[in-house]
Amino acid sequence: MTAAKFTRDEIPRRLLYPIKEAMVLLSMSRSTIYEQLRAGRLRSVTQGTSRLIPAAALNEYVTLLEKEAQEDSSGEAA
Q1: Per-residue pLDDT of the chain (78 residues; tens, 9 = 90+)
Q2: CA 32 to chain centre
Q3: How far apart are CA 65 and CA 78, in angstroms?
Q4: Are 45 and 58 in contact (CB under 8 A)?
Q5: Strand partners, 50
Q6: What is the dihedral of CA 22, 55, 36, 20, to 10 degrees?
Q7: CA distance readout (Å), 69 to 27, 30, 74, 76
Q8: Which residue, 7, 52, 54, 74, is the most exposed by fewest CB within 10 angstroms?
């Protein structure tokens, strides 16, 4: 069986990301990622001993940050 070949634009998005990749995707340090996990602001799952961040959780977290930024900016304007 050969591996599927994709062009750069065709590479399917993964459903789960390891912490190191989530760090890169979110531009955050390892300690910040774990702080957000402990605070319940970012969700994760475990598979064996690996902690993985679902792609949906990354999107939810970014949406949360955008919402908080919008609330902060509207609160300052009032």
Answers
A1: 565 665 656 556 889 999 999 999 999 999 999 999 999 999 999 999 999 999 999 999 999 999 999 998 887 654
A2: 12
A3: 20
A4: no
A5: 47
A6: -20
A7: 17, 22, 9, 11
A8: 7
Place of tokens 């509207």: 74
Amino acid identity of residue 28, one-letter, is M
Joined tokens for residue 14: 């993964």
Q: Which amino acid is at 71?
A: E
Q: Which two tokens stand for residue 44?
A: 């994760």
